[in-house]
């Protein structure tokens, strides 16, 4: 028995019947023209298929340039960025973390050395988080650990405890080897390059870029209500979390 053709498709056939422009590349039977976006595009009937699923929207790209012991950086990451990430679906927000901030890179006798705004402990914290990201690879694995470090009593002393809670599958020994060796130095050098390449150059941290751009307005909006900003910029279907209210401003940043 031949398949039953829905009335809507019959109407579509009538509209694009011979002489009205079905694409030459369309070699699909009429009852399949609206079955997928690719087929509808091949048959040039997309505008006549109202029930096609909408193409996936690109995620909002957010990059956070920060330093591990800056109070304002820690508050933004813990109170705004992490909570926003938890509330939104994975495909809606893509986050890049660059722990370096206002550090300075120097070449001392052929070896790279780093000086950080809040002292050697901050340099260690930056490198621990960079090595953690390199070891874990997956953002959803390492971000809760970084949240734990930044929200705890010590960024540099709580790695083992935070791993046990959020990512017990990770090897703290491998992270320590990274921190103490050439890999950690290379990761910090990479973060230094990323930070120094910012346009406009960063003046303080946390320094936030949205979809590759930084403006005073975007920075202020991200600090005022990051959830609201991401919901406004995302072009896809909005989740229920996007009905939230604005949050209060956070501490002023750590200037250079």
Automatic annotation (TrEMBL):
<keyword id="KW-0560">Oxidoreductase</keyword>
<comment type="similarity">
    <text>Belongs to the GILT family.</text>
</comment>
<comment type="function">
    <text>Lysosomal thiol reductase that can reduce protein disulfide bonds. Facilitates the complete unfolding of proteins destined for lysosomal degradation. Plays an important role in antigen processing.</text>
</comment>
<dbReference type="GO" id="GO:0005764">
    <property type="term" value="C:lysosome"/>
</dbReference>
<keyword id="KW-0964">Secreted</keyword>
<feature type="signal peptide">
    <location>
        <begin position="1"/>
        <end position="21"/>
    </location>
</feature>
<comment type="subunit">
    <text>Dimer; disulfide-linked.</text>
</comment>
<dbReference type="GO" id="GO:0005576">
    <property type="term" value="C:extracellular region"/>
</dbReference>
<keyword id="KW-0458">Lysosome</keyword>
<keyword id="KW-0325">Glycoprotein</keyword>
<dbReference type="GO" id="GO:0016671">
    <property type="term" value="F:oxidoreductase activity, acting on a sulfur group of donors, disulfide as acceptor"/>
</dbReference>
<keyword id="KW-0391">Immunity</keyword>
<keyword id="KW-1015">Disulfide bond</keyword>
<dbReference type="InterPro" id="IPR004911">
    <property type="entry name" value="Interferon-induced_GILT"/>
</dbReference>
<comment type="function">
    <text>Lysosomal thiol reductase that can reduce protein disulfide bonds. May facilitate the complete unfolding of proteins destined for lysosomal degradation. Plays an important role in antigen processing. Facilitates the generation of MHC class II-restricted epitodes from disulfide bond-containing antigen by the endocytic reduction of disulfide bonds. Also facilitates MHC class I-restricted recognition of exogenous antigens containing disulfide bonds by CD8+ T-cells or crosspresentation.</text>
</comment>
<protein>
    <recommendedName>
        <fullName>Gamma-interferon-inducible lysosomal thiol reductase</fullName>
        <ecNumber>1.8.-.-</ecNumber>
    </recommendedName>
</protein>
<keyword id="KW-0676">Redox-active center</keyword>
<dbReference type="GO" id="GO:0002376">
    <property type="term" value="P:immune system process"/>
</dbReference>
<dbReference type="Pfam" id="PF03227">
    <property type="entry name" value="GILT"/>
</dbReference>
<keyword id="KW-0732">Signal</keyword>
């Amino acid at each position: 028995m031949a398949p039953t053709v829905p009335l809507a498709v019959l109407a579509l056939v009538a509209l694009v019947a011979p002489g009205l422009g079905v694409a030459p590349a369309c070699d699909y039977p009429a009852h399949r023209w609206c079955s997928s976006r690719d087929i509808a595009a091949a048959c040039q009937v997309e505008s006549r298929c109202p029930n096609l699923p909408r193409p996936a929207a690109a995620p909002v790209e957010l990059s956070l340039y920060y330093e591990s012991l800056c109070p304002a950086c820690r508050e933004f990451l813990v109170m705004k960025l992490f909570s926003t990430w938890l509330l939104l679906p994975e495909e809606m927000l893509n986050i890049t973390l660059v722990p370096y901030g206002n550090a300075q890179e120097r070449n001392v006798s052929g070896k790279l050395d780093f000086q950080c705004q809040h002292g050697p402990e901050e340099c260690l914290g930056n490198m621990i988080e960079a090595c953690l990201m390199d070891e874990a690879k997956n953002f959803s694995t390492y971000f809760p650990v970084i949240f734990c470090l930044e929200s705890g009593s010590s960024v540099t002393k709580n790695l083992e405890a935070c791993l046990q809670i959020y990512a017990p599958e990770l090897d703290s020994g491998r992270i320590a080897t990274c921190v103490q060796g050439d890999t950690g130095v290379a990761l910090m050098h990479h973060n230094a390059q990323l930070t120094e390449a910012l346009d406009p150059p960063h003046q303080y941290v946390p320094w936030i870029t949205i979809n590759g751009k930084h403006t005073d307005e975007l920075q202020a909006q991200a600090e005022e209500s990051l959830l609201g900003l991401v919901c406004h910029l995302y072009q896809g279907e909005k989740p229920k979390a996007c009905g939230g209210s604005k949050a209060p401003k956070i501490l002023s940043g750590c200037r250079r």
